[in-house]
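quick one before i forget lol
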Amino acid sequence: MNMRLMNMKLLHLPVIVLAAFAVATHADAAKAKKKPEKKPEPAKAATAPMKIVQADLVGNSPWVKICGKNPQGGGQLCMTERAFGLANQPPVMIIAVYQAVGKKDAVLNLNLPTGLLLRPGYRIAIDSSAAEPGGFDYCLPNGCFSRGSLPAPALEKLTKSKELHVSVQRMDGKIVTFNAPTEGFAKAFTGPATDPKVLAAAQKKADDMRAALMKKAEQERQQLEAKPGATPAAGATPAPAAPAAPAAK
């Protein structure tokens, strides 16, 4: 499938908050003290185990399916999408599956937080299957984006899965594994396009969440500046508005 099909816009919940996710945990390991350099035998060399942070996500919204005109060759292109976050927290990852009507293969889009090492990319696994490598296409201030092919066998496996695991590496070297539940994906993917009223309600919820986050950030900035001796902070740059979703057909 031609990747240019990805021109269809996502039903973005406030993806601007992806950059605010502290992909970090508060327990940062202390820096190890340097020991006298001693080169071990190659066969006996050992590497310290990589610390992995597990992030169990929940759906911030229901799965939605949006269909529109395929920009390549006519016909329809459908997108099935859901946003995920930590419990009672804004979204930190968005999963979207695109499929041209009549095709067996699909394309998987991932929207991930900023603050990640781009060169290692990420690893993705369906349930307990072996993880496959993936790379980022580009990053913006509101997150990093990736798209990759989803062959028919993998797509079928995804429709029968329980979880999708995406592992990324933070700038401090630690690995974060996002565990996203895929329950409900098959029903949404194989079903009709989502009712426009449901889409409108989801968009309103996204806008309300975004407004609340902006208000909270402004209040915290004002409180910080009100403290004695505090240096006035530079004015916050408003986050770009999330793009509107295409009308369902």
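fyi Confidence is low (pLDDT under 50) at residues 1-37, 39-46, 232-249.
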